[in-house]
Specification:
A: alpha/beta; FAD/NAD(P)-binding domain; 3 domains; seven-stranded mixed beta sheet; 18% strand; B: seven-stranded mixed beta sheet; 19 helices; 18 strands
Amino acid sequence: MSKLSKYDAIIIGGGHNGLTAAAYLARAGKKVLVLERRYVLGGAAVTEEIFPGFKFSVCSYVISLLKSNVIRELMLPRFGLKILPLESTFTPLDNDYLFRTSDGDQTYKEIYRHSPKDAETYKRFGPLMGQIGMAVRPILETIAPNPLNPSISDLVALKKLLNHVKGLSNEHFEYLCKLMTMSSADFLDEWFEFEPLKATMAASGIIGTFMGPRSPGSAYIMLHHYMGDIDGAFRAWGFQKGGTGELSMTIARSAKHFGADIMTEAPVKKVITKNNKAIGVALENGDEYKSNIVISGLDPKLTFLKLVDEKELPSDFIQDIKNFRIRGSSGKVNLALDGLPNFTSLPGDGPHLRGAISISPNYNYLEKAYDDAKYGNFSKEPYMDIILPSVIDPDMAPPGKHVMSCFVQYAPYNINGGWNDSKREDFGDAVINTLARYAPNIKDIILHRQVLTPKDLETTFGLTEGNIFHGELTLQQLFSLRPAVKWADYTTPIKNYFQCGSGTHPGGGITGSPGEMAAKKILNKW
Amino acid sequence: MVTKEYDIIIVGGGINSLTAAALLAKKNKSILLLESRDKLGGMATLEEFSPGFKCNMVYDYIRWIDPRLIKKLNLYKYGLEFQKVSSLRIALDENKKHIIFHNDLNKTAKSITTHSLKDGNKWIEFTQYINKICKFLEPLYTITPPIISKIGIKDVLAMSNMLNPIWKHGRRGLIDIIRTIPMMMPELLDEWFESKLLRGSLAASGITNITQGPFSAATVLNFIHHHVHANGKIHNANFIKGGTHQFAKVLSNILKENSVVIKTNTTVKSINCKDGICSGVTTLSNQTYNGKIILSGLDPTNTFFKLVGSNKILPTFKTQLKNIKYRGSTARVHFALKKCPNIPGISIDQQDTIFSINPSEEYLERAYDDIKYGRISKNPYIEFSIPSLIHPNYAPNGKHVLSASVQYIPYHLKNQNWNDKLKNEIINNVTNIIEKYIPNFSNLIINSKITTPIDLEKSLGLTEGNLNQGEMTLDQFFFMRPTISTAQYKTPINNLYLCGCCTHPGGGLHGSNAVNAIHEINK
């Protein structure tokens, strides 16, 4: 590749959003280059063979929010998209368990066993959340308008949204307002009584966030997770065959198919600007690439405080970006296993190992885990969301062996005394000990373990403070304020410099949405 | 018994009920006001908690009074008077490096400088920033929340007027508001200050009278709520001459002058409704009064479940009512003292103010952690004053009263029951904590009394002892307060209105709720 060749667009970061943006631009006939720092594509959606024969979705591990039009428009199934359903949640308790599946009758019976009242309520609750999720989607699919100087199209979009909101039934509107402002615990208390059920549902309101289930604002994150939409089926969770990295590869293949160039091991040092206009990028190795526009898929802190000079940006904007909250709160433990974990409450192999396993016995358990983190420690008994990818997709591990992915909360980025090797191992031990309480054989079957602290997530994946959403999903960091007012429409104060990561509207998760919407916004003007 | 007819019947004799009555009385309506206790004022009453020692039951001071109310009713003419005190508040420091919040911002800044020069230098700018947000809320507090599904040009215009004070600060001002209100206190504080004590003191305002810790989202809303009409004076406080109950006295003088019929010691047994229309009330002594309009100053749970009857309300509304969050967590502890306590580092003439014990926001959050699990805070947030220095008649000559508000004391205790032993434990704990700042405090105590959330419920009819008749959180604010279906002061039952602090704009002895409710009724 000649260093002189000029691109229409350069995308910094080969995460799934960067790749999605690249694919859309290439599809529109633009000459696109994607630059990825690591040897492998996918960013936080990556599959790596950490131990010989054992493949891990190292960071992000489930797919629930990928937009169906992205799948269609980028022809992802043709390039390898294959989502295996992950349709159950198993909550082990000390002497019992709660096991919910996508089979309504079975789940009804199971919940009935614990609380007849909840079983009835559950039948109403799911559809309601689905409907509210649907009601929110037009908001998520609107490019966030600029409230300071709204353009004509912003006003049109706002009017459309206002009409949409006015069209909601009173009931939906009320619940929407509540979900935007309440804690997930308070919200669920209005519906259910059985603690393990409530805690497991509330747990989706704390994922990736520095909040407890009783913290106001967590209900919105719970809703965010209800907006999952795989092939149009609401609330379906899935596992990409080959791991989430395979999903990124699928998008990369689509981008390549449309003509995009993709380079790995090409860390970008700076965005080159001239007269406050982006004209290309400079790599760490000194290479420079010219382009008409530059798009950053990195988080807002890196995009604005590292890749460009502060003096290129207005001071109030810099202040906004500095104030943008991006506290990491979670870690990841990946285990290579010699066999399957044996849960005391539901021994042996079975369908409960084919879905998510949630260590969330009650609210207080989650709150105590949060308390530890609030005061600068990792949770001694953490919340965990676990899957066993090799059970669903045998190619992930050698025959008879397994891989286990544990998403762990809380592990604060700013831990007292700072993260070091021994603290990392202590954190790993806390996870294993907690697991052993429910599946005592776990200690005997571990062949290898990989422990990722928020600090590791930052170093390895470039996630500032290890925040998996590129910035917390709190009310003041959503929509027109994500990542900063006036610049929530994927543009930036620097001309021809754009952003497309999870730090933009509509936020984190494997959605492809920021990438898609950024690309569409750019193409609209082009 | 003969039923009597009135234009308007008001249930409850708290500040909002009295305000409503006074405003309506000016319109030549026949009005009946019913109060179950032997005196008017509700949360603004004085009690003799120990022989010869008196204290305001709930509020020792008032944050703000709705200026419309002062003007419309000419309250100053009727005797409302504020007492000048030496400062707004003193945040106590164990090492006697107290922060004094003066009336004069520059003096406050100087006091803060003893902890952090940087913070002191930022103080004036911070007060301006907060004031800007308050200036937005002030007009918002005067309007009836819109019904979102029916929002029309008129509502939008009414709201756009609210933005006028904001445009002064440029469009950026609006964004500051939208961005700031949903924050948790530390998020706001991180953008400004470093001093632990200063941060603790500000965070305390964000958690006052709610069951949330400073790390909970939208505690900034509660903070801002306390600073409306404060003109940038952080920790704004107004002592009413004679005591908070004088506010009720002033209002009841207006009622008497306008021949409003007031019946104390009269408990309403039911609000009479048939086919969704409200016709009057019946008292415990089976006296029925008919009224064209019934106005309830009680919280929605009392109004609908106790008085209207749950069989008269629709299931959806019932669910909404059930879901209102109350969970009171403020207790009051009154101490009768042998003599005036001496607070090291503070001269006696500076002691006529409010003191707070809030060493850091983490201290407050840990206090909150306890209540999260249904426990009494081991190290609670304490705010106290010595009212007898301000109102000498509160204690016998030479003796004094110390009045403390303590958070968090749960209404919902887990694995424990309320009994006298527990109450004494709380008093002892509070005594010990205060003693860290007032040496020898325990030896001054002649007598003490605690009012827990349970007691507040029993004596004042506040559901779960919540002083705001429903928590002041974002999900119970504006068009969601007290429920989305009753945010316009009107209720689903015809002719029945709400005017208590359960409605927009929420708690405090300011009367705004009633002023807004009357505006709706007059429509």
